[in-house]
């Protein structure tokens, strides 16, 4: 009921919420880090690209090439039973949580190439700056400063081998209760991103 399989919808969530939890299992056990990713759609499921600090302990696990899990968290919101009109009928309601998320799996590749990393940073920055009135670009910083920063990071690429999503937006409730959640979110002015997801 909650499973989302449309690739364009999954890709849209990744693009809208690029800061994801990267999870690996290596010699040091399980490691998780929040990493901003860029999505490339040139392959069947797409490719994720990012960078991280050369001193990050997760880099060892990434270099081992074992499968990585990347979790993208979209809109989320607590749902009170008070929003359900059906509560008045029998009282058989409980709190829950609405959310949207995407899980991606793939085998990472590490790139120590400065040109590759610079291109990834330029792309990520441009993606987030392009809507600003005066966009900042990496080239706005002194070139020697950028060169020093690039020495401290490495790039990673994860060709997506599997992708799945889960959208829990009250679709398991009766229409009157689902509308009650929408009305409650709107009236209490909470979780605008979840309200948009439910109305969309």
Automatic annotation (TrEMBL):
Organism domain of life: Bacteria
SUPFAM superfamilies: FMN-binding split barrel (SSF50475)
Coiled coil (residue ranges): none
Gene3D superfamilies given in the database record: Electron Transport, Fmn-binding Protein, Chain A
A Pfam match: FMN_bind_2
Name of the molecule in the record: FMN-binding negative transcriptional regulator
Provenance organism: Pseudoduganella danionis
Upper taxonomic lineage: Bacteria, Pseudomonadati, Pseudomonadota, Betaproteobacteria, Burkholderiales
């Amino acid at each position: 009921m909650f499973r989302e399989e449309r690739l364009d919808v999954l890709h849209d969530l990744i693009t809208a919420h690029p800061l994801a939890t990267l999870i690996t299992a290596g010699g040091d056990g399980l490691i998780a880090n929040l990493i901003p990713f860029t999505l490339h759609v040139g392959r069947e499921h797409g490719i994720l690209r990012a960078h991280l600090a050369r001193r990050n302990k997760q880099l060892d696990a990434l270099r081992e090439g074992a499968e990585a899990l990347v979790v993208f968290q979209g809109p989320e919101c607590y749902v009170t039973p008070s929003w359900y009109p059906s509560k008045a009928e029998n009282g058989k309601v409980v709190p829950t949580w609405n959310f949207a998320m995407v899980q991606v799996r793939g085998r990472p590749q590490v790139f120590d190439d400065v040109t590759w990393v610079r291109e990834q940073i330029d792309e990520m920055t441009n993606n987030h700056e392009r809507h600003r009135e005066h966009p900042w670009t990496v080239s706005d910083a002194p070139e020697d400063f950028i060169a020093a920063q690039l020495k401290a990071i490495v790039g990673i690429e994860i060709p997506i081998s599997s992708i799945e999503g889960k959208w829990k937006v009250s679709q398991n409730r009766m229409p009157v209760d689902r509308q009650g959640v929408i009305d409650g979110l709107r009236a209490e002015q909470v979780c605008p991103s979840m309200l948009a997801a439910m109305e969309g």
